[in-house]
Known about the structure:
This protein is 73% helix and 0% strand. It contains 17 helices and no strands. It is globular, with a radius of gyration of 22 Å.
Amino acid sequence: MGDIDLTLKEKALPAAADLFGDLLEIEAPSAPPRAKSTILSHAPGLAITALAALAAAWLGDHYHAPLMLMGLLIGLAFNFLNADARLHPGLGFASKTLLRWGIVLVGLQVTIWQIAALGWPSFVAIGLMILLVMGVGTLTARTLGFGSAFGILAGGSVAICGASAALALSSALGEKRVNQAQLTLVLVAVSAASALAMSLYPILATLLGLSPHAAGFLIGASIHDVAQALGAGYSLGEVQGQTAAIVKLTRVALLAPTLLLVTLALPKDEDHKTGAPIVPWFIVAFLGLTLFNSLVSLPPVVASTAKIGTSALLLLAVVATGIRSPMNLLLKQGWRASMPVVAATLVSFMLALGAAKLLF
Length: 360
């Protein structure tokens, strides 16, 4: 009897009325210290992630909805699957490793010559805007008690390229500084803000009577997501679209140095291994591909293929992030957690508008 009582005390049991296990928190069992991951162990999680990503792609294509937002919402709808420990290796691989490879592929889509084409005044303005918007996000987050890391994540996602930047920054910051629930909230808020900006900013640019180049700069410098910035720019005209594309791609190109600065500025974790590289490998690879793409004239099909690959990998990462998000922590954050994104978005628009009027 003593052994039975000890076993019952060590093993947490569900409540008597919990017939379906709804009240039982299921956590991932810790893996053995030297357990080797295999392809088979990753297959279930990757299969679920791929199916959910295909559903998100279908919805985004047929209803013209933001792709990343659809992926995140579908991932959250499948959040209950996170209780199955067999899915954890594949979900972790998709949300981390596939994300980093998606960031690397962005290097094949931008060149240093695109930045140079803007001229140094525009480049300096964009760089200052990124720093100021990230600063506003950080200050707002700290004021509300969320910490600097959360503010960097929120402000950086608005300042650079929306959900893609949020995913990249979260990878650089690490889960000890920014948890899955906070990342999910930023992804939801920045995707919604970008969708609203795509609809609203072209109207405001017209009402303000901006010149074609000024309107393109405003849209390219303030709308978060790349596809939505280009869509909003070309909705006004060819000149506006081309200017918005160059400005937006310049912001994307500045993702790499931003990640580098964040990585170097933040103190190392206690678990940081001696001799480990100071700069993560995917940032180095991103910079290397950007430099290679700038010096070597690659066929246009390379950039288009890299763009598709980036979208696919980031979509898989977003879906996996939604599935892995701890819903209890997500619900505890409340509406205040979206305020850093809102504040950064408003400041980003005002700064972009002021720069557009001064430069054009």
